[in-house]
Amino acid sequence: MRHNRPRAAWQILALLIAGVASASAQSAYPSWWSAYGVLSTNSPNDFGAANIGQAKNMAVAAVSELDTDLAQFGGAGPTLDALAATLLSGTAGPLNDYAGVNLGQLKNLAQPFYDRLLGLGYTLGPLSSGTYPWVASGLQPNDYAAANIGQLKYLFSFNVTASASGAYIPDWWIIKYLGNLNISGTALQNTPVPWSGGQLTYAQAYEDGFNPVDYFNGQTPTLTIVSGNSQTGAPGGFVSLPLVVALTDSNGNPLYDAPVTFTVTSGGGQVQASSIGTATNAITTLTNSSGRAQMFFQLPNIANNTSSITAASGTTSATGTFSEYSDGGGATYRSPFGPSNIVGYINADGSEDDTWQNNTDPNDTTPIPVWYWNPSTQTWFQIDSLPAGTTSYHIRPNPTPMP
């Protein structure tokens, strides 16, 4: 997946007078070289000396590239962003852009890029050995020796969007989490990650910057019960309010799209996620943008019974337990998915305008039946059928049954 790239301020610094690569051969290079203007129309001599201006040009472009294509992982990161700002501002010192650059300077320039990429798990191209290339080679170059254009190009030849399958999920990410490229990026667009309860695909996990193997990366979140505990209802009916928990990280920040599993651990009953969900003993759902997850609970058809429902999340689980009670009385059965806040207004002509709050799942396409009580015959009959999601209706005077 590519993004539009704004042109950076460095382009007005006239650093393009000596490009680092040939436009005629750009297909052999990472696509970002072309996107950020580090290619030259001249044919380069890879053994020719590289200069400071070329190195600055490449480094600033590389920071912009990482900020764009690794945005969901934090981009280039504060260290590299500060480096680019320093290079652009000239506060690094009175450098002569036409002066030659040596191997020590080139290594020093490339190292923070490699630290960032290795920290993310990128191990392709110059980093295929999992460490700095000058360390992996076992060679100790003369840091004061002149660096050439070919060496500069090689050190910045990383490509965080490269995908052998042609899909937008890059190879480095697939290899990091799955170990190989036996499953294509295209297939991963339709394959749910294990912890999501079938609600999030590998492609979506990549887009959001999530670890598809362990959302929490081995850390334990904090789970707090927000509401819905200690309710009482009729046997076989739903408790009035959903069971709601909040999930935060170690700094108290809400975690979104994080998995929470609600399990009936004692006393019986079932949990249900939405109007189109299935009632069962345990369901995994994902938190919303505020870091909250909820579940609806249906009491067992047993009078004077207490049920326990545990909400758990994380590799080393953070938990919270709800206690719900079914009394022996005849309290009204309440579906949490039925309309609520119903308001009716009778007009002078005998018609009626009704409004209500829709509580069904947005994906629930079940039509809404409209029933009318006939006071003369003391019977109900259906007068209309509304599209799912409708929240208002006008009842004409003396309606008739629908065909």
If you had to describe this structure to a student in words, what would you say it looks like?
It is a single chain. The protein is elongated. The model is unreliable at 1-27 (pLDDT under 50). It has 9 helices and 16 strands. It folds into 4 domains: 9-155, no CATH class; 171-208, no CATH class; 222-326, Immunoglobulins (Immunoglobulin-like, Sandwich); 340-395, no CATH class. The strands form 5 sheets. Strands 4-11-10-6-8 form a 5-stranded mixed sheet, with no helix packed on it. It is α+β, with helices and mostly antiparallel strands. The chain has helices at 31-35, 52-69, 78-89, 103-120, 133-136, 149-155, 171-178, 185-188, 202-208; strands at 21-22, 39-40, 222-227, 232-233, 243-248, 259-266, 270-272, 282-286, 292-298, 305-313, 318-326, 340-346, 352-357, 368-374, 379-386, 392-395.
